[in-house]
Amino acid sequence: MNHFDYRDGTLHAEAVPLAEIAARVGTPFYCYSTATLEHHFRVFAAALATAGLDATVCFALKANPNIAVVRTLAALGAGADVVSEGELRQALAAGVPPARIVFSGVGKTRHELEFAVAKGILQINVESEPELLALSEIAAARGVRMPIALRVNPDVDAGTHAKITTGTKENKFGIEWTRAHEVYRRARDLPGVEVVGVACHIGSQLTDLEPFRAAFLRVRDLVAILKADGFAIRRLDLGGGLGVPYDDGTEPPPHPDDYARVIATTLGDLGCRIVVEPGRLLVGNAGVLVSRVVYLKEGATRTFVIIDAAMNDLVRPAMYEAYHHILPVREADPQAPCALKDVVGPVCETGDTFARQRPLPPLASGDLLAMCTAGAYGAAMSSSYNSRPLVPEVLVKGDRFAIVRARPTYEEMRAFESLPDWL
Question: Which architecture, in CATH terms, is 4-32+284-414?
């Protein structure tokens, strides 16, 4: 669920009219609902507890690293799953204790590994043998043994978009399933690492539980082999990936209760602490991107709604052919006929298109539109393409709102550049 609804004919975030925020901060902007963030975390955590799982929920910062969003979740007990030094610093700044932080990712540099070891985080998910050797050397030089899990690639097709599936042998992630035991044996003999777990993540936006079940059963088999070989496996990091509804007419994703039952029935009797890393599930429906209609343009065969948001602000439609439900901020007359329109941005790319032939009510220049389910991989993946400033982010709580990332000025953007002395 989310907390964006119409009141007195205008779309609100909780008790704040989106039009009021637009008047204050300009458009486009991202708006997040505290109530939705809190609700989603509590529902997810309760599902794991009800299933009898000893679990730590580590929010995947790659979905939305805004410090206010992360702190909101950390205040409820969330840990953090990070994939860069920047995200690790962001999690620490947001108040996530190091003992609840997991560092994942295939390309951790030596500097990043040194920083993570120095901070004493919960564990590092190692994704290759070269990384394993580098980490052991770094940790041993500091006189510590770093807790690790090896991320195993179970060769399970998640059945999701090709660009966000991570669990097949053709993907760059993790250690090949058939070599996992061999690499674990090698890790046991290294002075700077302590093997504590197994990690697995097969992709994002999964709407079917069967790929999870197949991957978890492979994890179970590996744990049995490792325990028989004397490994004290005490943590299972199962990644994230459970999808959210984008209102595109597809089958709704499973409820967290059903997901938790799959974990419990496949892995619940192994006596291991479970680590899960939801990202999109917690923040996707907690955010909208609000934009203003600049022009309506009648083309030869279709009508274009040109808005002031662009693909640099929300790249998902251009990159993943992703669907986002679009709502007018001023509630449409239910008797007004809808017509098919293309919603496009101002960037000089045909790919700068948010919707094609979407049935929409009558619109006019100046109207506000809200692109729904934009809290995940929206602002996080934005850029300054076409020298466009990053859009502000706003957090709402009840009848209050605050700007939690400001829109930079053009002068601030240029401050990062300089001319060489020959110019």
Answer: Beta Barrel (2.40)
